[in-house]
Amino acid sequence: MGATRSYVGLDIGTTKISVVIAEPDDLGNLKVVGVGMAPSQGLRRGVVVNLDETVTSIRRAVAEAERMAGVSVKVVWAGIAGEHIRSLNSRGVITVSRRDAEIGPADVDRVVEVARTMDIPEDREVFHVIPQEFTVDSQGGIKDPVGMSGVRLEADVHVVTGGMTPARNLTRAIERAGLKVAALVLEPLASAHAVVAREEKDLGVALLDMGGGTTDLALFHEGSVRHTAVVGLGGVNITNDLAVGLRTGVDQAEEIKIRHGCALAALVPVHEMIEVPGVAGRPTREISRHLMATMIEPRVQEILTMARREMHRTHRSAWVVLGIPGRPPGLASCATPGCATTTNMD
User: What 8-state DSSP symbol labels residue 265?
Assistant: First the structure.
C-alpha cells in the first residue's frame, strides 16, 4: 500500500503562524493529525517586511506540527491576505461551440476565461476566479450549465487580485523554509469554507475574520461569493491603543486585553478595578476596567464601520464573527446595529 497523502495548511498571520496537517480517513473525510503554532516575526499587516525572521517563524510552526503528526511536510497550501488584496465582479459572454447547442465543460472553461480577461496593472496578479452564476439564453441563476442547450452562454465571476511583490515575498519565505507552495488561497475564503454552512451562504452571510494586523471579509449571497475585502486594522491596533492609554508595555497591554478586555463599555461596571503594571520600574497602578473598555470600544467600532462600508457595496446580510485576538466580550453587541449577528468565535 502507498503512503497516506497529507494535506497541509499554512496561515502566516501578523501575530502568529499556524500549521495544520490533515489526512483522509477510510470514508474520505479529512482528519487533523497535527497542529503547530509559533509567534510571527517579520510581518506587518499580513505583508512580509523581514524575510529571515518570517522564515524562522515558519520553520518553528511547521516543526511543531510535524512532531505531532509524525510526518514530514513538503508541500503547503498557504493563506494570503493584506491591504494589497482587491476584488471585483466581472462578466463574460460566448457563443456555444457545438452544433447541437449542448453546453460542455469546454464552453464553461472558455466563458470563465473570457470573464477573467481584463486590464490588470502589471504589478498585480490574479489569485482566484470564482464563478457565481451562469446565464443561458437570458435564463439566469444557473449554477452548472453543463448538459443544457443554448446558443449564448454568460458567466458572472468574482475575481480576486493581489500585489505581485507581496505574493512573491510570501512565496519566497515559504520556499526558503524548505517548503513548496501548492497554491495561495485568500484567507477569508478558506475560513468561510471551514465555518460557514451552505444554508447561510444561500440566505446571505458575511464572514468577518478579525486577525492581529488585518480584518478579512467575505460576503456570500445565493450560495456564491459576492465580495471580498481586507481592512488594514486588527487586534494589534487595540493592543497599541491600550499600551498608550494605560501607559504600560505592549506585552502587558496584550495580556490585560486578553484577561480583562471588553469591546462594549456599557457591559462593564464602573466600580470594577484592575491592576496595570508600570514600565521602567514604575509601580503597579489600579484603574477602572470600565475606563479600559472605553479605550477598546472606539477602535472596534472603527473596524466594524470599515467592514460595514465594504458590505454596503453589495448586499446587506447577517454576520458570522469568526474571531478577534484577545476575544473581548461585547464584540457581537458592537456589530449588531444595522445587521443581524451570529457569532462563531474560534
Answer: G
HSE-CB of 194 using CA atoms within 13 angstroms:
14
Residue 74 to residue 94: CA distance in whole angstroms = 41
C-alpha 307/C-alpha 209 separation (Å) is: 10
Q: Which helix (H) or strand (E) holds 90?
A: strand 86-95
pLDDT confidence bin for 325, thresholds 50/70/90: low
CB 232 within 8 A of CB 250: no
Contact 47, 82 (CB under 8 A): yes
Span 142-198, pLDDT tens digits: 999 999 999 999 999 999 999 999 999 999 999 999 999 999 999 999 988 888 889
Model confidence band, residue 27 (pLDDT cutoffs 50, 70, 90):
confident
- Retrieve residue 232's grid coordinates: 488594514
Helix/strand/coil for 215: strand
pTM of the model: 0.82
Task: Give me 221's grid cell.
Answer: 449571497
Alpha-carbon distance of 92 to 145, in angstroms, equals 14
Instruction: Count the neighbouring beta carbons within 10 Å of the beta carbon of residue 197.
Output: 10
**Could you tell me if residue 299 is left (phi over 0), alpha (psi between -120 and 50 degrees) or otherwise beta?**
alpha
Give me the domains of the chain, ranges plus CATH numbers.
Answer: 7-83+165-187 (3.30.420.40), 86-162 (3.30.1490.110), 198-346 (3.30.420.40)
Whole-number Cα distances in Å, 57 to 10, 14, 204, 252, 284: 12, 11, 37, 22, 33
Instruction: Give the pLDDT confidence of 239-268 residue by residue, as tens digits.
Output: 999 999 999 999 999 999 999 999 889 999
Instruction: Kindly tell me the number of DSSP H helices and DSSP E strands found in the chain.
Output: 9, 18
C-alpha span between 272 and 144 (Å, rounded): 58
Q: What is the pLDDT of residue 186?
A: 94
> In 3D, which of 280, 55, 79, 86 has the Cα closest to residue 181?
79
163 in Cβ contact with 123 (< 8 Å): yes
